Amino acid sequence: MKRRRDPLTLDLTPVVDVVFILLIFFIITSVFKKEEVALMLDLPTSNAKEIQIKEEQVFIELSVNKLAIKGIEVSFDSLEDNLKAIKNKENSVIVKIDKKVPYERVVKVLDLLQKYSLNNLALVTNEEKK
Q1: What is the dihedral of CA 18, 20, 23, 25, to 10 degrees?
Q2: What is the CATH number that goes with domain 45-127?
Q3: How far is the C-alpha of 66 from the C-alpha of 102, rounded, in Å?
Q4: Domain extents for the chain?
Q5: Own/partner pairs for 67-75, CB < 8 Å, 24+ apart?
Q6: What is the pLDDT of residue 120?
Q7: What are the tens digits of pLDDT across the range 86-128?
Q8: 129: number of Cβ within 10 Å
Q9: Which pTM was predicted?
Q10: Phi and psi, residue 13, nearest 5°
């Protein structure tokens, strides 16, 4: 004799399987966040050594007509306010500069960094292809 199942109960095994497969799918297809980048820059190449990036470092990006700090587009006045607010002057300042940026804009950013005694500076370049 066969037992009859209660019509109101559901077998949850297939539901758990589907949820598990969806979870795996989303984990595999997700993009892991590397760093906040606001501007698309064409960096110059260099064969300098690679540095380790830490969370407390300040990122500045400079293009021909835009400026960003920590992944947010700002003006030069706003950049100065952000640099003034930095308490630990020993933190590294990572600067990404597009290779087509006029020298005057680069000097303006470097002057602001010097004004607020942020001297631990690193310029980011692309790796030189051999």
Answers
A1: -70
A2: 3.30.420.270
A3: 12
A4: 45-127
A5: 67/109, 68/38, 68/39, 70/36, 71/35, 71/36, 71/37, 71/38, 72/36, 72/38, 73/38, 73/39
A6: 86
A7: 888 888 888 888 888 898 999 999 999 999 988 888 888 776 6
A8: 6
A9: 0.59
A10: -60, -50
Model pLDDT for residues 21-56, shown as the tens digit of each residue? 999 988 888 766 555 566 666 666 666 566 555 567
For residues 14 and 118, give the distance between their C-alpha atoms in angstroms, rounded to a whole number: 58
Which residues, in sequence order, are CB contacts of 41 under 8 Å at separation 6+? 61, 62, 63, 96, 97, 98
Contact present, 45 and 81 (Cβ < 8 Å): no
Rounded to the nearest angstrom, the gap between the alpha carbon of residue 49 and the centroid of all alpha carbons in its chain is 20
Q: How many CB atoms lie within 10 A of CB 38?
A: 18
Contacts 24+ apart (CB under 8 A), 56-59: 56/88, 56/91, 57/91, 57/92, 57/93, 57/94, 58/82, 58/83, 58/86, 58/91, 58/92, 58/93, 58/94, 58/118, 59/35, 59/94, 59/96
